[in-house]
Write a structure and sequence with these properties.
Blueprint: H1 2-11, E1 22-29, E2 36-43, E3 56-59, E4 63-65, H2 73-79, E5 87-90, E6 94-102, E7 113-116, E8 126-133, E9 136-144, H3 154-162, H4 168-175, E10 177-178, E11 183-186, E12 190-193, E13 205-207, E14 213-214, H5 222-239, H6 246-269, H7 279-294, H8 299-309, H9 321-328, E15 341-343
Parallel strand pairs: 4-13
Antiparallel strand pairs: 1-2, 2-3, 5-12, 6-9, 6-10, 6-11, 7-8, 7-15, 8-9, 12-14
Helix pairs in contact: 3-4, 5-6, 6-7
Length: 344
C-alpha cells in the first residue's frame, strides 16, 4: 500500500520520467575521477541477449545509488582506481516466515501492531503481527534458520507460533484465512558501507538507504532511516546552488542519521557472536536488556522507547530522570509481570 502510494505520487510529477526495464551496469566518471557524470545501462529481461540492444549511456548532473544491499558501487569505485570504502558487518542467523491473513471483523483484534522481540542469546525467537488494512494482518515469525519450520509446513508453523509468549500471532493464524503463500527470507544481518570516511569520493554521487546502511529488518528501522535521508537530501539540494559539492556534505549527514539505529541493531545482534562485544556495545546491550524487560509492563516507558526506536525522537529521551527512575527502581509485587512482547 505504501509503495503504491509513493509510486503514484512519483508518476504524477510531470518533471519525472521513469525509465523502466534497464539495469545499471557501470558508473562513468570524469577524466580526473573527481565527479560522476553518467551511468551505463542495459536492457533487462528476455531481450537482454538481443544484439540489437546495445548498452545505453545516460548523462546525469546527479546520481543517487538507492539500489539496496545489492549495490555494486564499492566495486565500481575500486575498478576506477579509487579507494574501496570500509564495510562493517554484524551477522545474524535469523530468518523469518511471513504470511498475510484476512480476518473477519468480529475476530479483528484491538491492536494495530503486536510483536515479540528477539534479544540473543537468551531470547532466540520472536515475531510481529502488523495491521495492513481493516481486514488484513501480516504475521511474521522469526528464529534462527534451523529452528523455524519449513514454509510449506503450515501445521508446524502454527505450532511454532503457539510456543511464543505473545498469543496474538496464533490468534491471527487460527481465526484468519491465509491469502498468500508463506514467504521465507533470511534477515541478512547488518551492513554499513562507510562512504563518509573516503578522502576521495566523486562529487555528484550520493548513496542512501540500504545501499549505505542495511539493518536487520526485524527492528523495523530501514524505511524510516531512508525517508529521513531523502528528506535531508531535499533540504541540501534546495539550499545549494546546483548539485556541485552536495555529495560530501550529504554523506557526512547521512552517517550521523544511521549511527543510532546502527548501534541499537548491532548491539542486539552481537548476542549471536561467539566473541564478546566491546565495552561500548556491552553498555548498550545492558541498557536495551533493561528497557525490554520493563517496557511490556510499563506503558509510559514503552511509548518512549517506541518513539525512539521509530526515530521520532532523540535517544536521549530515555535518560530523562523520570524514565530513568522507572527503569532503575526495584520491582514490587504490584508491578505487572515482565514479558517479551508489546502491542500498540
Amino acid at each position: 500500500m505504501l509503495e503504491s502510494a509513493l509510486c503514484d505520487r512519483i508518476r504524477a510529477e510531470p518533471a519525472i520520467r521513469i525509465r523502466d526495464g534497464f539495469l545499471v551496469e557501470a558508473l562513468e566518471l570524469s577524466a580526473d575521477r573527481s565527479r560522476a557524470v553518467a551511468v551505463t545501462v542495459t536492457v533487462t529481461g528476455r531481450d537482454r541477449d538481443d544484439p540489437g540492444h546495445a548498452p545505453v549511456t545516460i548523462d546525469a548532473d546527479l546520481i543517487v545509488d538507492a539500489v539496496g544491499r545489492a549495490s555494486r558501487l564499492p566495486g565500481w569505485l575500486a575498478a576506477a582506481g579509487l579507494p574501496r570504502p570500509e564495510r562493517r558487518r554484524v551477522a545474524s542467523p535469523l530468518v523469518y516466515s511471513s504470511r498475510m491473513y484476512e480476518l473477519p471483523r468480529d475476530a479483528a483484534p484491538e491492536w494495530l501492531v503486536s510483536f515479540e522481540m528477539t534479544f540473543p542469546p537468551l531470547v532466540r525467537r520472536g515475531g510481529a503481527a502488523v495491521t495492513v488494512d481493516p481486514d488484513h494482518r501480516l504475521v511474521s515469525v522469526i528464529a534462527p534458520a534451523g529452528e523455524l519450520p519449513p514454509p510449506r509446513a503450515e501445521a508446524a508453523l502454527r505450532e511454532f507460533a503457539g510456543t511464543l509468549d505473545n498469543p496474538h500471532f496464533a490468534h491471527v493464524m487460527e481465526h484468519g484465512r491465509p491469502v498468500t503463500p508463506v514467504y521465507r527470507c533470511p534477515v541478512g544481518g547488518n551492513q554499513w558501507i562507510r562512504y563518509h570516511r573516503l578522502r576521495q569520493f566523486p562529487d555528484r554521487l550520493l548513496v542512501l538507504g540500504d545501499a549505505l546502511c542495511a539493518y536487520n529488518p526485524v527492528y523495523g528501522q530501514g524505511l524510516t532511516v531512508a525517508a529521513i535521508q531523502a528528506h535531508r537530501l531535499g533540504l541540501l539540494l534546495r539550499r545549494a546552488d546546483g548539485p556541485a559539492g552536495v555529495a560530501r556534505r550529504f554523506q557526512r549527514q547521512a552517517a550521523r542519521i544511521v549511527l543510532f539505529p546502527w548501534l541499537t541493531a548491532t548491539a542486539a545482534d552481537q548476542g549471536w557472536s561467539r566473541t564478546g562485544p566491546g565495552p561500548a556495545v556491552s553498555c548498550v546491550r545492558a541498557f536495551l536488556s533493561l528497557v525490554l524487560r520493563r517496557a511490556p509492563g510499563d506503558p509510559a516507558l514503552y511509548a518512549q522507547f517506541a518513539r525512539i526506536q521509530n526515530i521520532f525522537t532523540s535517544p536521549l529521551g530515555l535518560l530523562r530522570p523520570s524514565l530513568l527512575g522507572r527503569l532503575l527502581r526495584p520491582r514490587t509485587a504490584a508491578d505487572p509481570p515482565p514479558g517479551r512482547y508489546g502491542r500498540g
